[in-house]
Specification:
Helices cover about 45% and strands about 20% of the residues. By secondary structure, the chain is α+β, with helices and mostly antiparallel strands. Strand 2 (about 45) and strand 3 (about 55-60) form a beta hairpin. It is elongated, with a radius of gyration of 21 Å. It starts with 8 loop residues before the first helix and ends in a 9-residue tail after the last helix.
């Protein structure tokens, strides 16, 4: 039997849950590393790598002659980041197979 396809349905569910948890962990780490809070300096907060999916800030608007604030959320940027996190997690799982000092079953 193929090793990539588990023998029973509970193993499939556990594999999917591990994949989702791993993707969420990679997404959280990448988002935390890409977090840029420059509100006191230039008035902008940015999240997302490789694509920016959230931005917030304040600044002076010369057209209105007042201070204005903005918030931008990009769903496409979030989806790009989720796909990126999934591919990074899959790559890490593939690389883990080639570690020579781990115990083989």
């Amino acid at each position: 039997m193929n090793k990539m396809i588990p023998g029973n349905k509970t193993a499939i569910v556990l594999t999917i849950l591990k994949g989702v948890a791993g993707t969420m962990a990679v997404f959280a780490v990448v988002t935390a590393l890409s977090y840029q809070n420059q509100l006191p300096v230039d008035g902008k907060l940015v999240m997302g790598f490789p694509s920016e999916f959230y931005a917030e800030g304040t600044g002076y608007s010369p057209e209105r002659d007042e201070y204005a604030s903005f918030q931008h959320f990009k769903l496409l940027g979030l989806l790009i980041n989720i796909v990126f996190s999934t591919s990074v997690f899959a790559l890490l799982c593939r690389l883990y197979r080639f570690i020579p000092f781990r115990k083989k079953k």
